[in-house]
């Protein structure tokens, strides 16, 4: 049985302008906006994990703007939202509930880019009111950081009433370091980032989350928990890497192993551990 449905219209990839519009929406509202949170959150989770850090940051900013009732200038993520659907291709995504009461996402995998589908989820949320809208915004914000599949783990994550992020989705996805890099906006390979870069990214994201700098007041605590969890995961990963490079020594937290010194991409100075221009350590641990 279909319990929620969203129809969206997207410009084709060959179109000279990037546009998006909404069609028929079936998003029942209960006190927590549960079905809307799952469907729109599922669309966001599927799309956001394929976008780069800058686009995910733009999605978070857009959600904050909507939560605070700000005017939404166009375009966003290089797409213009409009009412006219002429010349756009239709796409439908649904949330289905089986006889056992379990929800299943039926998302359109053929039409619409990741950015288009993520934006459709955000703009469709505006049709909700009251607490349903508030809870759906929280679900969409959590979905931006999701790393994993689109099955029951994601649905359970979106249904979580307290909105906590911490380690849940990271452990469920089997790759907490990838989740943490996503949360802090650090893109890269599996090589650890330096502690100084991790802390710099943490402080930068923490500043953006603060209500005095545009962060949503009722989402600040949730976002700070998420950032702190991500910071601890990556610092721990760096410490383990440093210790493996110097197995005979006790390596203090934040210090790098001996060996070829990487060059700081901004100053040209040498620091400890081989590091790329993005701040990733790329040197092979000694003894490997």
What is the assembly state of the chains in this entry? single chain
Low-confidence runs: 161-173, 253-288
The tally of structural domains comes to 2
* Gyration radius over CA: 21 Å
| Mean pLDDT over the full residue set | 77
State the secondary-structure class: alpha+beta
Beta strand %: 5-15%
Number of strands: 5
The N- and C-terminal alpha carbons lie at a distance of 55 Å
Q: Sketch the major β-sheet.
A: 5 strands, mixed
Count of runs of 4 or more consecutive helical residues:
9
Order of secondary-structure elements: EEHHEEEHHHHHHH
Helix content: 40-55%
The best one-word shape is globular
Please describe what this structure looks like.
- With 288 residues, the protein is α+β, with helices and mostly antiparallel strands.
- Helix content is 43%, strand content 11%.
- The chain is built from 9 helices and 5 strands; from the N terminus they run ββααβββααααααα.
- It has a 5-stranded mixed β-sheet with strand order 3-2-1-4-5, with helices on one face.
- It is globular and about 60 Å long.
Write out key terms for the chains shown.
single chain; 288 residues; alpha+beta; 2 domains; five-stranded mixed sheet; 5 strands; 43% helix; globular; disordered C terminus
Topology:
Layout: E1 2-10, E2 19-26, H1 34-48, H2 53-67, E3 80-81, E4 89-97, E5 103-106, H3 114-125, H4 130-144, H5 152-159, H6 168-173, H7 176-184, H8 195-209, H9 217-245
Parallel strand pairs: 2-3
Antiparallel strand pairs: 1-2, 1-4, 4-5
What's the short version?
With 288 residues, this protein is an alpha+beta fold. The protein has helices at residues 34-48, 53-67, 114-125, 130-144, 152-159, 168-173, 176-184, 195-209, 217-245; strands at 2-10, 19-26, 80-81, 89-97, 103-106. It contains nine helices and five strands.
């Amino acid at each position: 049985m279909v319990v929620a449905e969203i129809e969206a219209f997207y410009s084709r990839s060959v179109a000279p302008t990037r546009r998006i519009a909404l069609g028929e929406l079936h998003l029942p509202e209960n006190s927590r906006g549960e079905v809307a949170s799952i469907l729109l959150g599922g669309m966001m989770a599927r799309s956001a994990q394929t976008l780069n850090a800058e686009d995910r940051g733009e999605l978070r900013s857009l959600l904050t703007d909507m939560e605070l009732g700000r005017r939404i200038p166009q375009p966003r993520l290089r797409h213009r939202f409009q009412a006219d659907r002429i010349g756009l291709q239709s796409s439908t995504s649904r949330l289905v509930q089986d006889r056992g009461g379990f929800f299943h996402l039926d998302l359109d995998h053929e039409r619409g880019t990741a950015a288009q589908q993520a934006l459709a989820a955000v703009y469709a949320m505006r049709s909700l009111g009251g607490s349903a809208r508030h809870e759906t915004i929280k679900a969409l914000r959590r979905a931006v950081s999701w790393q994993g599949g689109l099955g029951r783990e994601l649905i359970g994550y979106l249904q979580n009433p307290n909105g906590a992020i911490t380690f849940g989705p990271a452990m469920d996805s089997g790759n907490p370091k990838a989740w943490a890099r996503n949360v802090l906006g650090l893109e890269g390979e599996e090589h650890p980032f330096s502690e100084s870069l991790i802390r710099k990214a943490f402080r930068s994201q923490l500043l953006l989350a603060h209500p005095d700098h545009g962060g949503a007041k009722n989402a600040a605590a949730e976002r700070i928990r998420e950032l702190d969890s991500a910071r601890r995961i990556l610092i721990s990963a760096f410490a383990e890497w440093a210790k493996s490079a110097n197995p005979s020594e006790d390596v203090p937290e934040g210090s790098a192993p001996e060996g070829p010194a990487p060059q700081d991409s901004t100053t040209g100075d040498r620091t400890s551990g081989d590091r790329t221009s993005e701040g990733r350590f790329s040197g092979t641990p000694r003894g490997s």
